[in-house]
Structure formats: C-alpha cells, structure tokens
Amino acid sequence: MTLNRTLRQLQNARDRRDPEMYDYIPETSEPPAGVRYMTLAEAQSLECNMCGQCCGSEEADLLGYPLKQYTFGPIPKHQWRSLNGGQPLIIPLTPSGRGRDWRPADAESAVHPAFRCEALTHVEDGTTRCALWQSRRPPPCDAFPTKAKHYPHDLKRGAYILMNTQYQRLCTWVDVLICPEDSVILEWRKSNGTLRGRLSKEQRAFVARVFREAYGDAFPTNGALPLKEWRKVRKAEDALR
Ligand code: SF4
Ligand code: SF4
Fold first, then answer.
1. Does 229 lie in the same domain as 177?
2. Statement to judge: residues 87 and 195 lie in one domain
3. Which residue, of 31, 38, 78, 238, has the fewest CB within 10 Å?
4. Do 223 and 156 reside in the same domain of the chain?
5. In this structure, are 40 and 150 located in the same domain?
6. What range does the domain containing 94 cover?
7. What pTM does this model have?
8. Which protein residue's CA is at the shortest distance from atom 8 of ligand 2?
9. 77 CB neighbour count, 10 Å cutoff
10. Considering the chain, what percentage of its residues have pLDDT values greater than 70?
11. Which of 94, 92, 50 shows the shortest CA–CA distance to 71?
C-alpha cells in the first residue's frame, strides 16, 4: 500500500479544485472520491509533512470559505504559559486575525475562538516547525490527528471514524476514514487507499451508509451515532463478505 501523500501531492489537489469534503451533503452525496480508507495502525504509520495547518486557524484557512473555522478547542486561562517561558502559548484571535487577551468564554463557550500558537515557525521550503516538538506540548497537540484516546475503544466497538482533518487540506491525514481491522471496505480499495472504480450497487450503498454515519459522528447535528447503532451497520456488513 502507498497510503502516504506528499505535501506536493496535497498542494496540487488543493489548487486543482475545491476541497471535496466541503461539497459533501450527507442526505444526497456519495462519499467524496478522494477519501482513503485505512486501519488505525495504517493511519498511525503515515508521516506528518509539517504543513502546520493544525497549528493555527490562519494556517488552515481556505480560499473561498468562511475564515478561521478551525479552532484549538477550549483555551484555558493558563494558555499553556508554563510551556512558553511564562508567556501565553495559545493566543485567541480577533475576527480580523489579531491576537487578543484571553477571556473566560475562550474556555467555557461551546464556540471556540480562532487561534495562533507561539511555538510555530515557518521555514523557507514552505513547511513549519514546532519549537516544542521534542518536549511537552498541550494535550490536543499530542492527540491530533491519530492519537485521540477514544479511537481504539470506538473501533473495537464497531465504529468507523472520519478523521478530524476537515480544515487541514494539506494534512497527510486529510479525508481519511478509519475502518475496523475486519472491515470489508478494506478489501475494496486500491493501493492508495481510495475505493476501486468497479464496486457493486450494494457495495457502494454500504460505503455510502458508513460514510454518512461517520460524517454524522464527526460533525454531529443531533448527537453522535450511538455505538449500538454501529453494531447494526456491522451486521449489515456481514452480508457483503
Ligand atoms: S505547540 Fe507545536 S504542535 Fe501544538 S499548536 Fe503549537 S506549534 Fe502546533
Ligand atoms: S496538519 Fe497534519 S501533516 Fe500538517 S502539521 Fe498537522 S499533523 Fe502534520
């Protein structure tokens, strides 16, 4: 398998067309053609290309889309000062992109602010570096994108997981659906992890169902699909083996 994608490949894909995931409408769309299907172990074996898009809202901004949708999540009052010589490490941004002082809502509100990280630097070849890479980083940095604590548990219970890389179009892990080890979908893919062209109607319908449910879990509007519902999906899968 050649599941990795280089930064150049991802830049070309981004420049060639609008990001496919942004066109996806759960009720009507087929799963985007560029989605790669892989196990968690395969995903964890891929290499970070140091694009830096997970390290700041403006790094992940997309042309033609509302800006600064990607956030760090809650920013606690300490702003991880202890990792940055006593100065705030994760800085909330104003809507126009200027750094601002921390407010209690940054930690408490369900809507989190855009952010910048003081540890991120850009280098001449277009990649980035994290000054804290070899030392301690805020926990969300360690979890992104393949080390979320709930992944192994959810997979064991039967869930498929759409990785949280929607805003990182240059990320090695963009548009990856993590599959349980025994997923039948893994048998239907090409060496680059995308689906083969010739699948039966039933196979396509099953992939569409799985993708729709995983998308709903990743971007819940009515709450994530209970894991017991995933068991029903897995049961339907048995008929396709
Ligand atoms: S600490 Fe490092 S990994 Fe975390 S957001 Fe900052 S630059 Fe990125
Ligand atoms: S967005 Fe993905 S590829 Fe880019 S620096 Fe973050 S983890 Fe690495």
1. yes
2. no
3. 238
4. yes
5. yes
6. 81-138
7. 0.92
8. 48
9. 11
10. 98
11. 92
Q: Please report the atom of ligand 1 found closest to the CA of residue 144.
A: 3
Per the domain annotation, does 73 fall within a domain?
no
141-166 burial: b if 16+ Cβ within 10 Å, else e = beebbbebeebeebbeebbbbbbbbb
Ligand nearest to the CA of 130: 1
The pLDDT of residue 21: 83
Cα of 138 from ligand 2 centre, angstroms: 15
Do 196 and 158 belong to one domain? yes
Question: Strand pairing of 36-38 and 176-178?
Answer: parallel
Low-confidence residues in the chain, pLDDT < 70: 18, 67, 222-225
Q: Which of 90, 108, 138 is the last residue of a domain?
A: 138
Cα separation, 144 vs 170, whole angstroms: 14
Full DSSP string of 7-43: HHHHHHHHHHS--GGGG--TTTPPPPTT-EEE-HHHH
Structural domains in the chain (count): 2
Which protein residues are within 6 Å of ligand 1, measured from CB?
55, 117, 119-120, 130, 132, 137-138, 141
Q: Are residues 166 and 186 in the same domain?
A: yes
**140-148 contacts: CB < 8 A, separation 24 or more?**
140/72, 140/73, 141/54, 141/55, 144/54, 145/54, 145/171, 145/173, 146/40, 146/43, 146/44, 146/46, 146/173, 147/44
Whether the Cβ atoms of residue 138 and residue 210 lie closer than 8 Å to each other: no
Domain-terminating residue out of 104, 138, 172 = 138
Backbone angles phi, psi at 92, to 5 degrees: -70, 150
Rounded Cα–Cα distance for residues 103 and 123 (Å): 32
Average per-residue pLDDT for the chain:
92
If asked whether residues 114 and 225 sit together in one domain, one would say no
